[in-house]
Amino acid sequence: MSESCCRTEIPVMLEISDVVREGKGQKSFFFKHTIHCKPGQFLMIWLPGVDEKPMAVSYWKKNEFAFTSQVVGKFTSAIDKLKKGDKLGIRGPYGNSFSIKSNVCIVAGGVGLSSVSTLIDALKNPLIIYGARTKEHLIYLKRYKNKNMLITTDDRSFGRKGFTTDVLEEVLSKNKEIKIVYTCGPEIMMKKVFDICQKYKIELEASLERYMACGYGICGKCMINDKIVCIDGPIFNSKQLGKMTEFGNFARLKTGRKVSLKEYHSIHT
Amino acid sequence: MLQTKLCNIKLKTPTILASGILGVTKETVDRLGKAGAGAVTLKSLCHEERFGNPNPTMFGYEDVFLNAVGLPGQGIDSAMKDFGRLDNLSVPVIGSIYGYRIEQFGEVTKKMASLKPAMIEVDISCPHMDYGKPYYADPELTAKITRIVKSNSGKIPVSIKLSPNVYDIKEIAHAAEKTGADAITAINTATGMVIDIDARKPVLANKIGGISGPALKPIAVRCVYEIYETVKIPIIGTGGVTYGKDAIEMIMAGATGVGIGTGIFYRGIDVFKKVCNEMEVWMKKNKVKNLSEIIGVAHE
User: Fold this and answer.
1) Which residues of chain B make contact with A51, given a CB cutoff of 8 A?
2) How many CB pairs (< 8 A) connect A and B?
3) Fold of A104-267
4) For residues B95 and B41, what is the distance between their CA atoms, to the nearest angstrom?
5) Candidates A6, A13, A223; nearest CB to B25
6) B117 contacts: CB under 8 Å, gap ≥ 6
7) So what's the architecture of A12-94 in CATH?
8) Which of A 9-28 lie inside 8 A of B, CB atoms?
9) Which of A48, A85, A88, A244 has its CA 20 to 30 A from that of A179?
10) Scanning every residue of chain A, which has its alpha carbon at the shortest distance from the alpha carbon of B73?
11) Is the Cβ pair B243, A225 closer than 8 Å?
């Protein structure tokens, strides 16, 4: 028996070293600080006096990292007002990570691209299918200008009109080389991506989102069926997703009550 | 070797998931059972849905874990639909309940009892609730709550969960036993605060929180020891149990069951198996065949 059991999980106050506007209501916040991060992991971001929420690591290199936030509610609106030199409490990274494979396709919707960006940076030549509402909502266009990227916008203001899932279906029906699909975005989209991958018998890893308080598997709020999203996930494979009756259908509120995804998103922004 | 009985409930191990850690959904119960828990206490439910406090609601700082989640919960009515029943799972389930007003403890108990948990635990001790006057610190209020819970629980045994934030925990335990409690769960968290000197603010949004983790253990052991000298009903000793040696210590102080909650933070969900294995190693080495041989042995 070991005699001591210290473990510290407490936010570290870090100064924002840079703020970059990525798209409409979307900004990346940079920190000059070393973290050890695997593709797809997330941080807990504390804005003292407001709230603390999970955010994916969206840029990661030696001595620097960032997360990308989109204004959706009270917390993200307060984050949006922060300037270089302001401080945020950071803890993590938490969660599992994407597997690194070749012949891959990434399907990202909206700010979900930020959750797969550390994966994109770790892959050799991924095919990226990326969709957003309008041209103004597209992020990382400069960052990924040399990547093989198929872009869709709901209003046809940039790239193709329509949904990422239509493009995925088209790609998979023609390209038999693709071995695995990775996805992050609205859960309705990810559910469709799952169905398409099942149809074409292609492996899938999806990054899921649920309300979180701790990030290390004790508060029990981020349950999806019997999985604890913050420690068992946030990335789940086809086999796991196939067993999740709640995936694409239900989520639990902070209170623990199971509701439709629509109601969940109307309460937890 | 580790099998034990608590109010006639057979437990394959004495380790019990403490209330407030995981235990939000029915699916977690089987998972914790597989991880070695002898029983699982659900997160406390009251008469209404509660969102609790804004984040951060918890953090770990070396041997201290501080939380102020503010009793979020879906409420007993929603839980009744969600859980259906609690007597058909792989391990015994302890349903934790509370109310704001005394009569609400009775109403929630009645509904919880209809789900057929193995035991009902009564949270009179959560330090974050504004009861007006805290029930946990007053023997007469504790007695009133125990009576109303017992009159609504049918044949299901009832454990009253006590707070260490009192002048004399013995008189509270005595009041619960006298009015019909079948067991005592001791203890809930002790109140504390941590200030981030860079943020210049208390870290918890609620400012004050409850201390759990290894730092709580000496307080819990003292409380269990004192309660054991006062009452005859069994005690679920909870507070800072992280290793097998902690569980043995709690049992020697007088506990029959041993609650583990924050131990998951330090050692993962498998903490139950790890603690049980360490207990068995200790028992073999010390020629203890059955845990009943050492319950309260520190008093002799």
Assistant:
1) 54-55, 205
2) 131
3) Rossmann fold (3.40.50)
4) 6
5) A223
6) B42, B86, B87, B92, B93, B94, B95, B156
7) Beta Barrel (2.40)
8) 9-11, 13
9) A244
10) A255
11) no
Q: Hey, which residues 207-236 in chain A have their CB within 8 Å of chain B?
A: 213-214, 216-221, 223, 225-226, 228
Specify whether B126 is catalytic.
yes
Distance from CA of B287 to the nearest CA of A (A): 18
Domain boundaries, chain A: 12-94, 104-267
CA distance A108 to B178: 62
Helices and strands in chain A: count of H runs, count of E runs: 7, 18
Q: How far is CA B47 from CA A253, B143, B147, B192, in A?
A: 17, 20, 18, 28
Contacts of A7 in chain B (CB under 8 A): 60, 62, 265-266
CA A132 vs. chain centroid, Å, equals: 14
B43:A218 CB<8 A: no
Q: Specify whether the CB–CB gap between B17 and B42 falls below 8 A.
A: no
| CB atoms A219 and B69 under 8 Å | yes
pLDDT tens digits for range A68-119: 999 999 999 999 999 999 999 999 999 999 999 999 999 999 999 999 999 9
Starting at the earlier edge strand, list the strands of the sheet with A235-237.
A160-161, A148-153, A127-132, A104-109, A180-184, A203-207, A235-237
pLDDT under 50 in chain A at which residues? 1-4
| The total number of residues written for chain A in this structure | 269
pLDDT in tens, B84-121: 999 999 999 999 999 988 899 999 999 999 999 999 99
Q: How far is CA B56 from the centre of its chain?
A: 22
Cβ atoms B45, B75 nearer than 8 A: yes
Q: What distance in Å separates the CA atoms of residue A81 and residue A235, rounded to the nearest whole number?
A: 30
- Whole-number Å distance between alpha carbons of B111 and B104: 11
Q: Does A52 contact chain B (CB < 8 Å)?
A: yes
Chain A residues whose CB is inside 8 A of the B31 CB are 226
DSSP state at residue B53: P
Complex ipTM > 0.85: yes
Domain B4-52+68-188+213-299 CATH (choose: 3.20.20.70, 3.30.1480.10, 3.40.1010.20, 3.90.1570.10): 3.20.20.70
CB spacing of B196 vs A5 below 8 angstroms? no
- In chain B, where are the structural domains located? 4-52+68-188+213-299
